[in-house]
Amino acid sequence: MRTENLYLLFRQELEKIMVKDILNLSTVEEIKSGGNVVGFLLLQNKYIDGLYVLPEYRRQGLGRKAVMDYIKKHGMPKTLQILKKNKVAMAFWHGIFDLRLIDSSPIDWLYHIDGLKDVESEA
Length: 123
Known about the structure:
Structural class: alpha+beta
Mean pLDDT: 87
Number of strands: 6
Radius of gyration: 16 Å
Shape: globular
Order of helices and strands: HEEEHEHEE
Low-confidence stretches: none
Number of helices: 3
Helix content: 25-40%
C-alpha cells in the first residue's frame, strides 16, 4: 500500500476518535437548504475554524450567507487560516474578505482580515 493511502487511513481513524472532542470544543452552526442540513460553520472562541458545504449545494450562496450571519452575530473575525492546496477555499475567502498575509507555513497561510468586500449587494 502506498504511504499516501496509509496516511489517509490514519487520518480517518484519528478523526473518528477525535470528532466528539472537536465538536464538544466547538460551536457548530448548521447550514440548511430546504430544511435539510447541507453544511456547517465550525467556530472556536468566535474564530471560524471550518466551513463545509456538501458539493452538490456549493455555489448557491449558502456558505457566504452563513459567514455573513456569523459576522452579524459575532462581529468581524480578525484572522483566517487557509490551506494552500485548497483552491476552492482560497477563492471563496478572498471573495468575501480583504486579506493581508501575516504568516506562511508549508501547509497553510495565515491572513489578517482587513475588511469585508462589498458582498452584501450580491447576497
